[in-house]
Design a protein that fits this description.
The chain contains 19 helices and 15 strands. By secondary structure, the protein is α/β, with parallel strands linked by helices. It is elongated. Bound molecules: 5'-O-[(L-methionyl)-sulphamoyl]adenosine.
């Protein structure tokens, strides 16, 4: 069954920022992991292009909304290419097929008796594209997230009868694993316990949206339209705009990965809309935390927003991916700290992992004819490093299954630390000088090289470039199943199709004695940032 995972569909009111890159990176790691272990994957990202916020931004820039959306969504597209994000789809909600799917979906919901007319009165935040009901916000009409004035609205709209789904949503959200991490579940439970109220799904006097069939002057509320983007995205490039076809391509989603601020839409509104249309809700909604920068909220007004393009130029893909995935517990808020980024990249990647491989392959080449030394009994699974490797593999897999990228990174790193410790203890550089020590030294080097090979495989979903360089240094074939064909440099290489699956390659003893080792090259340059990012 296809493993469908999604990032949020990003608003195109502004250029991409680190917050959007963060979710996409995490999803990329998850998508690569699932592909590596042999699952067909549908990795969806995209842009949310309708609504008042976008309309106003385009007006302010003197552009038509469509021209504005084209320009900003191209920036997202380019960013994902530069980060080598392995997405299978990049949906834009201005795609003509999307409009058709929204109409089909609406027809189902309407046929189910879940659309009624009503009057919508309340305080609205255009930046959130959401009515606010928090009493504090309503007393002092300002959005607590955006710190901008709320706008009073009083409109005759169409409503979705969410209140009918109270029991169904209550039953859904208590299901083990539906809302993750578990710490976020309470917040949704409290919201649902207050009683679900019908919500308006159309707007009047807002031309930049999808027209509601049969209701002249109404366009769909941007969230109603945007969530359906996850379904449109499932369509193959040549498919007709047909809801049933889309669903057959990979619904229900295994996981929607989102920021905690939009959990309510994904864990309450969206499942209810799907149930109304007779469709299955997603299996899991994962609400990650927010990134701050050096302890401060990131925002335009503070002038401290981190630009993912500039970051990539200064630090490179491996450094940023490693830092963001390894340092920040995915479900929690995290603080981006430049010094910590430098320290972790240099300690973990350049020193612990990079040097382990570099110094061991140098020794092997020097003393064993440029090749992997004979393994003797070391190739058997009872070697202490073999046991450490098995533990690391199990832990990486279990961690990635629960989107715990931090623990996965730490488990892979731990194997490198253990191998370094073993090497220091065995001190092959002094033993090699002793008569008759060559066999033992060779076996030790074999065990360490084999550990380095396994580290390379284990970090592949997290830092694929570094993993690839390590495998190359060990004379190993590249991993081909972590990325879709379009991103594979050696996709036409017939050897690629003979690639042994990742899970099989993860077994101890895979390195062949006698395998020639290339000239050692540092796999990870030290990161030096002399000026603030
Ligand atoms: N368009 C809606 C999503 C519709 S999904 C059908 C939207 N877009 S957004 O561009 O405003 O936000 C996209 C994501 O970025 C959200 O998941 C949000 O939580 C996340 N982040 C925004 N700022 C962030 C940080 N500072 N840190 C981490 N993630 C952040 O909402």
């Amino acid at each position: 069954m296809t493993f469908t995972l999604t990032t949020p569909l990003y608003y195109v009111n502004d250029r991409p920022h680190l917050g959007s890159a963060y979710t996409t990176l995490a999803c990329d790691a998850l998508a690569r992991f699932e592909r590596l272990r042999g699952n067909p994957v549908m990795f969806i990202t995209g842009c949310d292009e309708h609504g008042q916020k976008i309309q106003r931004t385009a007006e302010a820039a003197g552009l038509s909304p469509q021209a504005h959306c084209d320009a900003v969504s191209a920036q997202f597209q380019e960013l994902w290419q530069r980060w080598q994000i392995s997405n299978d789809r990049m949906i834009r909600t201005t795609d003509p097929r999307h409009r058709s799917l929204v109409e089909q979906f609406f027809a189902r919901v309407q046929a189910h008796g879940d659309i009624i007319e009503g009057r919508q009165q309340g305080w609205y935040c255009v930046a959130c594209e959401e009515f606010k009901d928090d009493p504090h916000e309503v007393q002092d009409p300002e959005c607590s997230i955006h710190r901008r004035p709320l706008e009073w609205r009083d409109e005759l709209n169409l409503f979705f009868r969410l209140s009918r789904y109270q029991a169904a949503i209550e039953a859904l959200i208590v299901q083990e694993g539906f809302i993750q991490p578990a710490s976020r579940r309470k917040e949704v439970e409290n919201f649902v316990a207050q009683g679900l109220r019908d919500f308006s799904i159309s707007r009047v006097n807002l031309p930049w949206g999808i027209p509601v069939p049969g209701h002249a002057g109404h366009t769909f509320y941007v969230w109603f339209d945007a969530l359906l983007g996850y379904l449109t995205a499932l369509l193959e490039p040549g498919d007709e705009a047909d809801l049933a076809t889309a669903l057959s391509r990979g619904w229900p989603a295994h996981v929607h990965v989102i920021g905690k601020d939009i959990l309510r839409f994904h864990a309450v509104y969206w499942p209810a809309m799907l149930l109304s249309a007779g469709l299955e809700p997603p299996k899991r909604v994962y609400g990650h935390g927010f990134l701050t920068r050096e302890g401060q909220k990131m925002g335009k007004s503070l002038g401290n927003v981190l630009d993912p393009v500039a970051l990539l130029d200064r630090c490179g893909r491996d450094a940023l991916r490693w830092y963001l995935l390894r340092d920040i517990a995915f479900g929690d808020d995290g603080d981006f700290q430049q010094q910590r980024l430098v320290d972790l990249v240099n300690n973990d990647l350049a020193n612990t992992i990079g040097n382990l491989l570099n110094r061991t392959s140098s020794m092997a080449r020097r003393w064993f004819d440029g090749a992997v030394p004979p393994a003797g009994a070391t190739r058997a699974g009872d070697h202490p490093l073999a046991q450490a490797a098995t533990g690391a593999r199990d832990s990486v897999i279990a961690s990635l299954e629960r989107l715990d990228f931090q623990s996965a990174a730490q488990a892979a790193l731990q194997l490198a630390i253990t191998a370094n410790g073993f090497l220091n203890e065995r001190a092959p550089w002094s033993r090699i000088k002793q008569e008759g020590a060559s066999t033992g030294v060779g076996e030790d080097l074999y065990a360490v090289l084999e550990s380095a090979r396994l580290v390379a495989l284990l970090i592949a979903p997290l830092v694929p470039d570094l993993s690839g360089r390590m495998l190359e240094q060990l004379g190993q074939s590249p991993l081909t199943s972590g990325v879709p064909k379009g991103l594979l440099s050696g996709a036409d290489d017939p050897a690629a199709s003979l690639d042994v699956p990742w899970l099989e390659r993860l077994c101890w003893g895979g390195l062949d004695p006698g395998q020639l080792l290339p000239e050692p090259q540092p796999v990870m340059a030290r990161l030096e940032l002399d000026a603030p990012l």
